[in-house]
Design goal:
Oligomer: single chain
Structural class: mainly alpha
Order of helices and strands: HHH
Largest sheet: none
Helix content: over 70%
Number of strands: 0
Mean pLDDT: 92
Length: about 70
């Protein structure tokens, strides 16, 4: 098993924290889309170690969370 790049670790931490927030808000507001996107933010980083993939997917999922909140 290969250890992730340093910037990938930073992205994993940042997007996991945002995902936990989205899960909490999705449950509080009964918003299933926000809840599922939050779960995706928390979990996707376990399947990749490339920094650019972590940041690209994380940015897309985060944008999705804010898009469904409106």
């Amino acid at each position: 098993m290969e250890f992730p790049e340093p910037w990938a670790l930073v992205g994993m931490l940042l997007f996991s924290l945002l995902g936990m927030w989205a899960v909490k808000e999705g449950r509080r507001e009964s918003n299933i889309k926000e809840l599922l996107l939050g779960i995706g933010l928390v979990g996707y980083a376990y399947f990749t170690s490339e920094a650019w993939v972590v940041w690209l997917v994380g940015a897309g999922l985060t944008a999705g969370v804010f898009w469904v909140r409106e």
